């Protein structure tokens, strides 16, 4: 899996979590990514390569009806998230459990 795929899948999971939560009716979803291409593709779906089109379509469908935004951030601003993601790779149990 390449970095763009991993980032798009992570964004989709985060949007799904937000969408299914009570937060979705109370807050604006602000998506921040250090992947400039992912930000561009979500902001302009006509520019998405075919291989990522279905993931971006899923993200946009989940965002329908939500107030949301996406922006690119510097990788240096993303240190805490990067550490959390790397620690989750070796975790034998979920960091977050969501019960229906």
TrEMBL record:
Q: Which InterPro entries match?
A: RNaseH-like_sf, RNaseH_sf
> Do you know which Gene3D superfamilies this protein is assigned to?
Ribonuclease H-like superfamily/Ribonuclease H
Q: Which top-level group of life is the source organism from?
A: Eukaryota
What protein name does the entry list?
A: RNase H type-1 domain-containing protein
């Amino acid at each position: 899996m390449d970095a763009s795929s991993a980032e798009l899948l992570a964004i989709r999971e985060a949007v799904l979590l937000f969408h299914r939560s009570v937060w979705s009716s109370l807050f604006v979803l602000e998506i921040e990514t250090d992947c400039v291409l992912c930000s561009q593709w979500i902001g302009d779906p006509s520019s998405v390569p075919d291989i990522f089109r279905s993931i971006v379509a899923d993200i946009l469908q989940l965002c329908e009806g939500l107030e949301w935004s996406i922006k690119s951030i510097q990788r240096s601003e993303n240190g805490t998230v990067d550490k959390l993601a790397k620690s989750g790779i070796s975790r034998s149990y979920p960091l977050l459990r969501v019960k229906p």
